[in-house]
Design a protein that fits this description.
By secondary structure, the protein is an all-alpha fold. It is 64% helix and 0% strand. It has one domain (6-74). The protein has helices at 6-9, 18-27, 41-74. The longest helix has 34 residues, at 41-74.
């Protein structure tokens, strides 16, 4: 695939050792299911902040829906 589309794949990070990937997943606390992308700590913190905002917005939307459902039920 790299030979067919080098403009897309030559700049991508990749692993040369799956054994090392698994070893790091098991032994390093910073590696885990959330570690699908290589990113800086600043990027990680910014993403977590955005996720928090989205969760709060979802919670607010669910509360609004529950209130609307209760109003319909009370009528």
């Amino acid at each position: 695939v790299r030979a067919l589309a080098p403009e897309f794949y030559d700049s991508m990070a990749y692993h040369t050792s799956w054994l090392l990937v698994h070893w790091k997943f098991i032994t390093e606390p910073s590696y885990g299911p959330q570690s699908r992308l290589g990113r800086t700590m600043e990027d990680h913190k910014a993403a977590r902040k955005q996720v928090g905002k989205l969760r709060r917005a979802d919670e607010h939307a669910y509360e609004e829906m529950a209130l609307d459902a209760q109003k319909v039920k009370d009528e």
